[in-house]
Amino acid sequence: MGKETWRFINSGKQSPAFNMALDEALLYWHSQNQIPPTIRFYGWNPATLSVGYFQNIEKEVNLEAVKKYGLGFVRRPTGGRGVLHDQELTYSVIVSEEHPEMPKTVTEAYRVISEGVLEGFRELGLEAYFAIPRTEKEKQSVKNPRSSVCFDAPSWYELVVEGRKVAGSAQTRQKGVILQHGSILLDLDEDMLFDLFLYKNDRMRERLQRNFKQKAVAINQLSSQKVNIEEAVLAFKKGFEKGLNINLQPYELTQEEMRFVGDLAEKKYASDEWNYKR
């Protein structure tokens, strides 16, 4: 049997609202059988803080700092914690829950999709592996994270290099379709990241930031050869083809599709009602 062909969209740097709207549009089109399974790579303009669907903005996010740094802000349709999208490659995978290669459980489907990310790191010469919480304490920390920062701790099947998390991903299932998107760090401004959240006191912030250094790392902190975004796109495109055993066919959105996404971005993901009212 030949390899299945999926669609590949490299949409470059887009606004926060457009990025989330395009992920939702792809999920909708796939649910209507209008498009095949799709993998998308993208960036952010401006750099953006995204928060998980269930996060409480008032209690967790320092909106003054978001404004001070000139960052975009958006709520994702997926769960998880706060992510600073800056010097990174972001990916999304859209595939039916009924796809023969997709396990029924969220955790196992997450592992299958993340094989593509794993192989991408290997293409860059990095020995990545899946984190599997083993002790009861580790399992509890996945269920009850101590911090609002996504990269604070690896959860089930998160990607790890030298014991530190290198990619953070989140998944949602709607209309019979899996949407998994994630953040692959090339570089990271840790101080800026930690300025974006609220803490009970300075001591707690210092402790969390100190712990964070031991738990998370960006690609260019690990590699003597600096990786740029073009090299990352090539490596992770190959990685997804290998990890999911597929061919990726490049695709450009039509004007009609762009209008649909722009409309959804404006009405939903650029609105205060969506981003702030939870």
Q: What are its keywords?
A:
globular; 3-stranded mixed beta sheet; single chain; 40% helix; 278 residues; alpha/beta; BirA Bifunctional Protein, domain 2; 8-stranded mixed beta sheet
Question: What topology does this entry show?
Answer:
Layout: E1 4-14, H1 16-31, E2 38-44, E3 48-51, H2 57-60, H3 63-68, E4 72-75, E5 83-85, E6 88-96, H4 106-123, E7 128-131, H5 136-143, E8 158-161, E9 164-174, E10 177-185, H6 190-195, H7 202-215, H8 219-222, H9 229-243, E11 246-250, H10 255-269, H11 272-276
Parallel strand pairs: 1-2, 1-11, 3-4
Antiparallel strand pairs: 2-6, 3-5, 6-10, 7-8, 8-9, 9-10
Helix pairs in contact: 1-10, 4-9
In words, what does this structure look like?
With 278 residues, the chain is α/β, with parallel strands linked by helices. The chain has one domain: Bira Bifunctional Protein, Domain 2 (BirA Bifunctional Protein, domain 2), CATH 3.30.930. The chain has eleven helices and eleven strands. Helix 4 packs across helix 9. The longest helix is centred in the middle third of the chain and has 18 residues. The termini are far apart. About 2% of the residues have low confidence. InterPro entries: aa-tRNA-synth_II/BPL/LPL, BPL_LPL_catalytic, LipM, Octanoyltrans_LipM/LipL. It catalyses: octanoyl-[ACP] + L-lysyl-[protein] = N(6)-octanoyl-L-lysyl-[protein] + holo-[ACP] + H(+).
